[in-house]
Specification:
alpha/beta, Phosphatidylinositol Transfer Protein Sec14p, five-stranded mixed β-sheet, 12 helices, 7 strands, globular, disordered C terminus
């Protein structure tokens, strides 16, 4: 079944169905796969979509993969959603990549109380951009991440519509990427909101959601890889945008470029294994002294560097 899907997208005559650029300025005009799409269509990517369709048929996986190929173009992953475009959403640190769980998966923190912008499409674009950066930080053999959401402190909760859109994106276009969803400090008034959302959550995703877990006691995170405060970890982290943001952008770009170079050396085509172009000796350049003095933990090519203040 995997070979049937791979052969479909490896066909030299393959064209993406139902794709039309919305504007003349679109960065992608043709129907053939561009380099970024071939890179995305890895051996593991095909496997994730087969698992998401419960191995029903090759055609079911192909249909979902093609829907995501079109979505990635239309949503702007290759042109609109850039670091410069989403940076205004990032200035307060409402979404942070920090630490590994005990399975080596990068932690993706969401802190709604730090919301700094009015509701707009860019808020969801920022979430997608951060999710892509989390994927950049996944080591060999790692395909998913823990989502850590702290709903404590006063802040503007996302709207029902935005939550549905976020859930739809995760379920339809990032299947098998959510390892766990850990939610703490749910205010009483939000319980009803969450109950409204649950019918839109597929059963597999629903099983991954945990409310108010003790992530250290349950062995989900080691204390030295977890933020302090509400999460109970040993890492006192203060978000400094002027330091964290350029480091995140630079180091993820360096890692992605390194992987892309290896992928090209392996043939640069559909179906190459992520495991083969990722290696244990991947290392980003050392953080400069200014960065090391600014934070205790910061994302690097292995996701985080521990530095002495």
């Amino acid at each position: 079944m995997h070979k049937r899907v791979l052969d479909h997208f490896s066909d030299p005559e393959y064209k993406i169905p139902k794709w039309e650029p919305k504007t003349e300025k679109s960065a992608i005009a043709g129907l053939t796969l561009i380099e970024q799409e071939k890179f995305w269509l890895s051996y593991e990517c095909i496997s994730r979509y087969l698992r998401a369709t419960k191995w029903k048929s090759a055609e079911a996986a192909i249909h979902r993969l093609e829907a995501t190929l079109v979505w990635r173009r239309e949503y702007g992953l290759y042109d609109l959603i850039t670091p410069e475009y989403v940076e205004p959403e990032a200035t307060t640190g409402k979404e942070i990549l920090f630490g590994y769980d005990t399975q080596g998966r990068p932690g993706f923190y969401m802190i709604p109380s730090r919301q700094n912008t009015s509701e707009s499409p860019r808020q969801l674009h920022y979430m997608v951009w951060m999710l892509e950066r989390a994927i950049d930080c996944m080591e060999q053999g790692v395909e998913s991440l823990p989502l850590l959401m702290n709903l404590g402190d006063r802040g503007k909760a996302p709207s029902f519509q935005n939550c549905r859109q976020m859930l739809h994106i995760l379920q339809e276009h990032y299947p098998e990427r959510l390892g766990r969803a850990l939610v703490i400090n749910v205010p009483f008034l939000l319980h009803a909101f969450i109950k409204l959302m649950m019918p839109f959550v597929d059963p597999i995703t629903r099983e991954k959601i945990r409310f108010n877990p003790d992530v250290i006691k349950e062995g989900i995170f080691a204390k030295n890889e977890l933020m302090s405060g509400a999460w109970g970890g040993a890492c006192d982290f203060e978000y400094v945008h002027e330091e964290y943001w350029p480091a995140l952008v630079r180091l993820c770009e360096e890692r992605s470029s390194s992987w892309r170079a290896r992928w090209k050396a392996l043939g640069g085509t559909v179906g190459i294994r992520e495991y083969d172009y990722k290696t244990d000796d991947d290392r980003a350049p050392s953080l400069d002294e200014k960065m090391a003095n600014a934070v205790t933990h910061i994302v690097d090519a292995e996701l985080l560097v521990q530095a002495t203040p």
